[in-house]
């Protein structure tokens, strides 16, 4: 048993700040108990293409979605609009397969390195971050790879 498993969950991430890599870290379930989900029980999750490091999207996970993702390596999010689990690609076929997952230093944001199949964005673009901003004007920095009507079959 590690020294971290004895800590209250609100102190765990603070204690990890000074942990040496050789320390025996807490198991995953202990860490998940300490994750700082928001008032709705959700955690922001940033999906990044594992090999190019391109940021693809940000979505939300509840604990169930996070546990499923870690167990199956197929990324599962929580849909706030549908109020249910959403397995990326279940309607479009554009899945994300987990390569690695990392919590930030506060335990309140998750970074997922994924293998993305096709576009990540519901607009048919590779990335959801296609609207670039500067101090004067916005512009679209990428075109859709696939027509959204093809992705979703005019649902």
TrEMBL record:
Residues in Phosphoribosyl-AMP cyclohydrolase domain copies: 57-130
Annotated Zn(2+) binding sites: 105, 121, 128
Keyword hit for rRNA-binding: no
Pathway stated in the Swiss-Prot or TrEMBL entry: Amino-acid biosynthesis; L-histidine biosynthesis; L-histidine from 5-phospho-alpha-D-ribose 1-diphosphate: step 3/9; Amino-acid biosynthesis; L-histidine biosynthesis; L-histidine from 5-phospho-alpha-D-ribose 1-diphosphate: step 2/9
Residues annotated for Mg(2+) binding in this entry: 104, 106, 108
Cofactor note: Binds 1 zinc ion per subunit. Binds 1 Mg(2+) ion per subunit.
One Pfam family cited in the UniProt record for this chain: PRA-CH
Principal EC category: hydrolase
Protein origin, superkingdom: Bacteria
Location(s) in or outside the cell: Cytoplasm
Cofactor needs: Zn(2+); Mg(2+)
Single GO molecular function: zinc ion binding
Enzyme Commission numbers on file: 3.5.4.19
GO biological process, one term: L-histidine biosynthetic process
Alphabetical list of InterPro entries matching this protein: PRA-CH (IPR026660), PRib_AMP_CycHydrolase_dom (IPR002496), PRib_AMP_CycHydrolase_sf (IPR038019)
Catalyzed reactions per annotation: 1-(5-phospho-beta-D-ribosyl)-5'-AMP + H2O = 1-(5-phospho-beta-D-ribosyl)-5-[(5-phospho-beta-D-ribosylamino)methylideneamino]imidazole-4-carboxamide; 1-(5-phospho-beta-D-ribosyl)-ATP + H2O = 1-(5-phospho-beta-D-ribosyl)-5'-AMP + diphosphate + H(+)
Keywords tagged on the record: Amino-acid biosynthesis, Cytoplasm, Histidine biosynthesis, Hydrolase, Magnesium, Metal-binding, Zinc
Cellular component terms (Gene Ontology): cytoplasm
Annotated family: In the C-terminal section; belongs to the PRA-PH family.
Assembly notes: Homodimer.
The protein's role, per its UniProt record: Catalyzes the hydrolysis of the adenine ring of phosphoribosyl-AMP.
UniProt-recorded name of the protein: Phosphoribosyl-AMP cyclohydrolase
